[in-house]
Amino acid sequence: MRMSWAELFEQAPEDVTLDEVRAALRAHRGRDD
Amino acid sequence: MTEQPATGPDPRRIAVDADVFVADLLIDGDARTALDVLFGHSWLTVIASDRVIADAMATISDIASERLAATWHDRVEELHQTVDHPDGDHPGLASARAGSAAQLLSYDDRLTSAEGGTWIKGRVELSVRSPKAFNLIFDPATVWEMVGEGAYEGPDRPPRATS
Predict the structure, then answer these.
(1) φ and ψ at B17, to 5 degrees?
(2) Shortest Cα distance, chain A CAs vs residue B20, angstroms
(3) N or C: which end of chain A has fewer CB within 10 A?
(4) Closest residue on chain A to B28 (Cα)
(5) Does residue B155 form part of some domain?
(6) What is the ipTM of this complex?
(7) CA gap B110, B55 in Å, rounded
(8) pTM score, two decimals?
(9) Does residue B74 lie within any of the structural domains?
(10) Quick one: closest CA in B to A27, which residue?
(11) Which residues of B touch A (CB under 8 A)?
(12) Domain count of chain B?
């Protein structure tokens, strides 16, 4: 059965920061600035 | 440089960059507020290329897990329109351009800064905003007045928290 959005949000790890997200995406896209 | 789309930007079409999708899932806050508004209205279209979705999945995998990324992918597939664009362009910007979007939501400060805005303005008619800025200025009722018929009746899809 497909997971609901509410369940999906609950699966997210705690304390993720926007800086962490931006850095991970930059690294994935090959930017190191 | 790629060609301009045949049609101009459409206020109902909003492109979303990978970092906003990831922040929506992993952080909540401004990104989730913005996407709740977009996903809550069937007449608003979220635009993202396969590259944007793949970037979001890779970032979710890095920070959380591949399983969570795959599950997120299953859910987000039904809520966005896919566009194609050439490799090499900024995926969020290229998605907006290919999808005739009037706005792009992104946390990329190369695009959201004053300098970035000037750079973009010379190439496409597009407003690039962080989710926080988008939430401050975007009013679905105002867009509905431009494109819809009759009175604006609010969101016509159930909230994601209940779906």
Answers:
(1) -85, 165
(2) 9
(3) N
(4) A9
(5) no
(6) 0.91
(7) 17
(8) 0.90
(9) yes
(10) B59
(11) 18-19, 22-23, 25-28, 32, 55, 58-59, 62-64, 68, 71-72, 74-75, 91, 107-108, 160-163
(12) 1
Residues A16-26 have a mean pLDDT of: 96
User: Which residue intervals of chain B are DSSP H helices?
Assistant: 18-26, 30-39, 50-63, 66-76, 91-98, 109-112, 114-121, 131-137, 140-147
The pLDDT of residue B2 is above 50: no
Among A15, A18, A26, the residue to mutate for chain B (most B Cβ within 10 A): A18
> Does residue B29 sit within a domain?
yes
For B54-95, how does the pLDDT look when each residue is reduced to its tens digit (9 = 90+)? Answer: 999 999 999 999 999 999 999 999 889 999 988 888 999 999
In-domain check, residue B1: no
Query: Using CA atoms, how far apart are residues B157 and B155, in angstroms rounded to an integer?
Result: 6
SS (H, E, C) B8-55: CCEEEEEEECHHHHHHHHHCCCHHHHHHHHHHCCCCCEEEEEHHHHHH
- List, in order, residues 6 or more apart from B68 with CB less than 8 Å away: A8, A11, A12, B25, B60, B61
CATH number, domain at B69?
3.40.50.1010
Closest to B25 (Cβ–Cβ): which among A8, A25, A28?
Answer: A8
Q: Do B25 and A21 touch (CB under 8 A)?
A: no
Name the residue with tokens 């090499």: B88
